[in-house]
C-alpha cells in the first residue's frame, strides 16, 4: 500500500517540481512514479499511481492537496440538494488520463499491475467532510438523519465507480483493489447497509471482466466475515487482528492479504525481520496468502527498512 508514497527520494524530487495532482494527471509522470518502487525493491506487483479522490475531483467539488494536511474538498456536500447539483460526467472522458497511464505501463512492466478505487462509503465521506476527519461526524449524522439521500449519493458514486473500474480493466490492469479506508467508523449494522451493500454492487458489476478484486477496509479485521459473504477474490486485512485466526473464519476460496503493522517498519532491522517472519510462519502453507502491510506506508519510513521487508518476504518464499 502506498508503494511510492513520499518515502522515496526519487518521488520527492518529482514532487518538488509538480503538485501531487499534476503527477496524477500526467500519464508519463504517473507511469514513471508507478515504476519507481518496482525498480528499487523488486516488488512482486505494481500499484497504479493515482488517488481514490480522482472521482470527486471529476465531479468538480474542488479537490486540492495541502502539505501536512492532506486532501481538501472546497465545496463539500452539505444538503441533499447539493447531490442533485453535481454535474453529470463521462468517466471515460474525465479520467482518460488514468487510461493513458495504464496503457503506458503495461508494456513497461514485468509484474502484474493493480488498479484501484475508493469504496463508495469512503468517497462519500470525503465529499461530505471536505477532507480527512477523525470521527466522520457529518457523514454519520447525515446517514442517520436522512438515509434516503445518503443512499442516493452512494448509488451515484457506485455507478461512476463501476465506469471507472471498467475503464481500468479495459486499459489492461491485472487485478483490482477497493479501499474502504473509513469503514471502521461504522458499527456492524451500518457497515452492512451503507458500505457492504455497495461493495457487493461493485463486485457484481465487475464480474464480467473476470479480474480478481481485493477488498480492503480499515476495520476488515472486524468485518472480514461480512466481507467474505459478498465473494471478493481476496480480503486485505488491517493490522489489528491475528491473521491466522481470521483465516479460520474465511473460506479457503478467498485469499487473504496483509497485515503487518506499518509502524513495524520503524523497528530496528532485527526486530523488523522477526515480526515479518512471525507473520509469514503463521500463514505458512496457505496457498491463498499475500503478504502486505495492514495499511499505508508512512512518508518518513527509511528506504532500507522497505528493502529489508521485501528481501525477508522473498527469501522466506524461496527457502521454504
Ligand atoms: O504509489 C502509491 O502510493 C499508490 C497510489 C495510491 C495513492 N493513494 C497515492 C497517494 C493509493 C493506492 C492511494 C489510495 C488512497 N488515497 C486511499 C486509500 C488507502 C488508505 O490509505 O486508506 C486514501 C484514503 C486516499 C486519500 C488520500 N490521498 C489521503 C488521505 C492523502 C494524504 C495522505 C498523507 O499521508 O498525507 C492522499 C495523498 C496521497 N495519495 C499521496 C500519495 C503518494 C501523498 C501525496 C503527496 O505527495 O503529498
Please describe what this structure looks like.
It is a single chain. With about 325 residues, this protein is α/β, with parallel strands linked by helices. The protein has one domain (about 10-320): Alpha-Beta Barrel (TIM Barrel). Helices cover about 50% and strands about 15% of the residues. A seven-stranded parallel β-sheet has the order 1-4-5-6-7-8-9. Strands 2-3 form a two-stranded antiparallel sheet. The model has no long low-confidence stretch (mean pLDDT about 95). The structure holds coproporphyrinogen III. Coproporphyrinogen III binds next to strand 3. Coproporphyrinogen III binds near residues 4, 49, 70 and 179.
From the structure above, extract its key features.
9 strands, binds coproporphyrinogen III, TIM Barrel, alpha/beta
The helix count comes to: 15
What percent of the residues sit in helical stretches (DSSP H or I)? 40-55%
Q: Write down the domain tally.
A: 1
CATH class: Alpha Beta
Rounded to the nearest angstrom, the distance between the terminal CA atoms is 25 Å
**Using DSSP, what is the number of strands?**
9
Mean pLDDT: 95
Beta strand %: 5-15%
